[in-house]
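Hello, quick one for you while I still have it in my head. My current little project is about how a certain protein chain folds up. You're getting the sequence in one-letter code plus the fold written as tokens. Would you mind checking whether the tokens look sensible for this chain? Here's the protein in full, and shout if anything looks odd to you:
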Amino acid sequence: MGVVAGFMLWGYPSSPFEGYAPITPWGQFAGAIIMFFVLGFVPGWTVSKILQSFGMLRIPREIELAGLDIDTETVRQMEAEEFAEAIRVEAARAEAGSGA
């Protein structure tokens, strides 16, 4: 979009004050390239290197091979079964304690 502005505003002054350069597509293109690297690529690359150094960029290889496709319903069902089993164990323990 910035490059298009350079073509649409070609020759107009870049500021209402005297002494500023006129707008050109080449200036807009150079600004777009600089902003891409300064505000896009460099910060993204830096953050990815920091995350990689902490081992947070990728999941462990074992989990990658096992798969990450567990859906939330399966997790809820597993949690419900574990909860029910804990209640059964607690009830059996209470029954054994009162009968002894």
Remarks:
- The chain has two domains: 1-58, 70-100.
- Residues 25-53 form the longest helix (29 residues).
